[in-house]
UniProtKB/TrEMBL annotation:
High-level lineage: Archaea, Methanobacteriati, Methanobacteriota, Stenosarchaea group, Methanomicrobia
Primary localization class, coarse: membrane
Source organism superkingdom: Archaea
Species of the source: Methanocella conradii (strain DSM 24694 / JCM 17849 / CGMCC 1.5162 / HZ254)
A GO-annotated cellular component: plasma membrane
Reactions catalysed, as given in the entry: ATP + protein L-histidine = ADP + protein N-phospho-L-histidine
Protein name: histidine kinase
Annotated keywords: ATP-binding, Cell membrane, Kinase, Membrane, Nucleotide-binding, Phosphoprotein, Transferase, Transmembrane, Transmembrane helix, Two-component regulatory system
Amino acid sequence: MPFISIKSKAVILLVLVATVPIIVGGVSSAYYWGIVEKHIRDDYLAYAKALSALTVSYIDDSKIYLKSQAGSHSAIYSVADKNLPVLNYTLKNIQNTGQFSNVYATDTSGMVISSYPYSMLAGLDEMDKPYVYGPITDTKAYVSQPMLSEYTKNHTIYMGVPIQDESGRVLGVLVGSLDLHNYSFFTSEWLADTGKYTYLVDSSGIVIARYGGQNNMMGKNISNYPGVREVSGGEEGVYEAYNPAVNETQVVAFSPVKSYGMGVLIAIPTNMAYYPIQSAITTMITFLIILMLAAFTIATIVGRYLVKPIINMSKAMKEMPSGDYLRYLPVERQDEIGDLARSFDSMAKTIRADQEKIMSARDAAEEEKNKTEFYLDLMGHDINNLNQVVLGSLELIKDDKNLTGLQRRFIERAINAASGSAAIINNVRSVKRISSEELSLTPINLDELIRACIGEAPRPPDKKVTIRYTPKVGMIIKGTPLAKEIFCNLINNSIKYSGKEVDIDISADEVTVNGKKHYQIAISDNGYGIPDDLKVKLFRRFQRGALKGDGKGLGLYIVKTLTERLGGTVRVVDHVSGDHTKGAKFIVLLPAAQ
């Protein structure tokens, strides 16, 4: 990439400063138009969603109110006793205080006992109406689809709720009529002075309530209008389309009233919808003119006062690694440039000192790492080989039939010590491998690992060891042969930290954690157990879980480290809940291979 000096850039800046604001203004206006347009559409969609929720609330509140009245003392006993004066008063009160255009009560045969204000319904058999026979047969509230009322000629929603006595016996049905013409007035209060047209349509696209728009829209099928077919199908969204009903292009937002099979549409002419954008663009042009003047002034100041110090500081940065950079730094200036120069000088000195420390620390760390690697290799190879020679020799001596009992005990103690030393070395080597190596994960059969550990588990002559295993077929994980160390360590610990009678139960289960399949292996024993205060730190390095038995505390650290590197977890609980002296239970959770 060719180098361009700051001086050249300053000249270019002065040339561009007069044209850039115009370009930026044009691009910003186009971009801003899209942003505001999306914001306006989102607002109208929010209106539609809110009105949809309001519609559900309007119907649900009416149903809840009707239920509460059906459970009132006056409604129950006036229907039970067919006390018409009390029932008439109750229905009148419900109609006056609720949102219903008419309310009536029936008996269990569906016969209308009383109705207000349409008293002519009294004596009619309404059993064929689903909002009457439904509550009678299944004692549940029923809300109808919108339908034309033969009395008001308006679209109406009928809802019926059972009237039940204290024992739950149905005495009749309380029916309320929600005239959607009244709902139109309800929405008009909410949408007043917004310039929006609102339509409530049923699942066929027929207008059943409206606010704004043409008066002849009520009852009209507008399924071919923008958004109607979509909202009838349960979709929501925003369109900008031509509406033949009003001969204009509109922004139409729609949202379904899913609970009741209806839909809400909100429409507004595009010239009204996008008026805020035109106002915003005027403001933007004014701002760009001011910005252009300010940019020209700033560019002039920068070119005269800041360019040269910046060039000198650039030279100082190049000189810093090799020598005399101070001659380029304007440290004498008493302003921000001077502060920057002095800070640069301080930073340069600090960087040089830190570089020296880092180099020294890196060399020391490398030396210590090499020493550690040497000691680990020495312990893992040479000392372990010597251990094997000692063990082999002791085993040969132990076979001598002329040994006394005391001599044999001393030799067995030496064999145990040498075996323990070999185990520690193997554990240290395992810790090194799982901590430093990048594990190569391949499909591993957990069942085979567990069975191998059971087969290799020690059977001390002074202990009776019983291991029961309940397998799970097909347990495949993404792991490494090192995973065997998890279960061998846990089984060996159970044997080591138990009494003469060792009972170990191993179970395998498939569980789901955060939506993903895992395998849970539980290993329980009847050993000495682990006190609660030790459980929280049991898996730390060099931490032992019991006072009895020997060990250096590396086994469980290996278990935890390996399990976590395989993406799993391990924890310990009491074998018998609340009594740690009855043994321990280790639970290993490993993710299944995907």
